[in-house]
């Protein structure tokens, strides 16, 4: 039997996985394990305390974890081509750990904490079998470290089709991580999960048009471009908007955007002579700044807009108003999310 499913990073068509059993306990001073089925000797939960003070890096190579680990500390560990199917990790803190080419399908993480120095690369996970509850993990690192295996595809499935389906898998996993970090005290984990959920959802909105429904028939480049055009435009707008608010972390960039809009339109109003050229340069520019502020903040739009004004002036007012409304759409959700989270 092969080891795992063909899309998993640990898939091996010629080996069904390790059979020799081992335990995590009793590894003090050990450098790790290779090709072992790691279980609990007595069937109960296991607890280990591996801290950085031990100065004992441990490496687990091609191991299958099938046990429950609870109230544990795991530092300086490297997991390479390991499977965690059927394992439960509860109140475990991972520090300076590396997960490379591992499969997280079937794992359960409860109230775990992955310190920000943990690294993820070339891993896989099944969205339907990935359970994470109240766990702090860098969604950016975890999602960017996911891959789908295209080396051993069955007949009828192309690498492009598998990669397309993988985009949907990432979106579902991002949703799991978002739900797991909503109550996390460290807001950075929450904001990363929110950013990844939005990005992956937008990518899925584009990618769903690459193939015809659930079939494996690929749309032509023209059909794909035509059907995905609106989704691409939405992705471009939302990602730029996310950058302006640092994905909900800060209003600083949004405030700079407001200042830039006011300054830019104040200059334009001065250049087109909205105020008839009366008074000195500073007086005219000051009036233009006040006009730009009022129109941008929407409050004074009706006071300035005149049907008898030149077309250029009316276009500037409308564009200025639109950018002001766009700024409101950025700032209000950020403030409400920070206050009411």
List the total number of helices: 9
Q: Structural class of the secondary elements?
A: alpha/beta
Shape: elongated
Q: Helix content range of the residues, please?
A: 40-55%
Query: Which consecutive residue ranges, at least 5 long each, have pLDDT under 50?
Result: none
Total strand count, please?
Answer: 14
In short:
The protein is of the alpha/beta class and about 350 residues long.
Explain this structure:
The protein has 341 residues and is α/β, with parallel strands linked by helices. The chain folds into three domains: 1-135; 157-243; 252-340, Orthogonal Bundle (Helix Hairpins). It has helices at 139-144, 159-181, 187-207, 221-227, 229-244, 252-272, 281-296, 301-304, 311-340, and strands at 21-22, 32-34, 37-38, 49-50, 58-61, 64-65, 68-75, 77-80, 88-95, 98-100, 108-110, 113-114, 119-121, 131-133. Strands 4, 7, 9, 11, 12 and 14 form a six-stranded parallel sheet that branches. α6 (252-272) runs antiparallel to α9 (311-340). The chain is elongated.
């Amino acid at each position: 039997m092969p080891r795992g499913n063909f899309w998993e990073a640990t898939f091996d068509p010629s080996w069904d996985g390790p059979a020799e059993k081992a335990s995590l306990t009793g590894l003090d001073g050990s450098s790790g394990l290779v090709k072992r089925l790691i279980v609990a000797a007595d069937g109960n939960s296991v607890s280990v305390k591996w801290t950085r003070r031990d100065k004992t890096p441990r490496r687990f190579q091609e191991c299958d974890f099938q046990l429950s680990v609870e109230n544990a500390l795991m530092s300086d560990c490297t997991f390479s081509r390991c499977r965690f199917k059927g394992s439960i990790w509860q109140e475990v803190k991972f520090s300076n750990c590396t997960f490379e080419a591992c499969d997280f399908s079937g794992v359960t993480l409860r109230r775990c904490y992955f310190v920000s120095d943990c690294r993820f690369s070339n891993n896989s996970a099944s969205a339907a079998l990935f359970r994470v509850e109240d766990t702090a993990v860098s969604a950016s690192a975890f999602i960017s470290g996911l891959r789908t295996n295209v080396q051993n595809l069955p007949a009828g499935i192309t690498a492009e089709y598998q990669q397309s389906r993988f985009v949907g898998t990432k979106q579902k996993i991002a949703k799991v991580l978002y739900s797991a970090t909503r109550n996390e005290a460290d807001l950075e984990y929450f904001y990363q999960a929110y950013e990844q959920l939005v990005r992956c959802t937008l990518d899925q909105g584009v990618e769903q048009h690459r193939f015809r429904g659930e079939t494996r028939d690929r749309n032509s480049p023209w059909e794909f471009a035509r059907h995905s055009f609106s989704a691409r435009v939405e992705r471009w707008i939302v990602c730029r908007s996310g950058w302006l608010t640092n994905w909900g972390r800060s209003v600083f960039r949004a405030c700079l955007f407001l200042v830039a809009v006011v300054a830019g339109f104040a200059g334009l109003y001065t250049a087109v002579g909205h105020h008839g050229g009366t008074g000195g340069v500073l007086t005219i520019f000051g009036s233009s700044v006040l006009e730009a502020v009022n129109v941008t903040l929407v409050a004074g739009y009706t006071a300035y807009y005149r049907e008898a004004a030149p077309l250029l002036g009316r276009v500037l007012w409308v564009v200025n108003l639109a950018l002001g409304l766009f700024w409101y759409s950025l700032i209000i959700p950020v403030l409400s999310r920070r206050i009411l989270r």
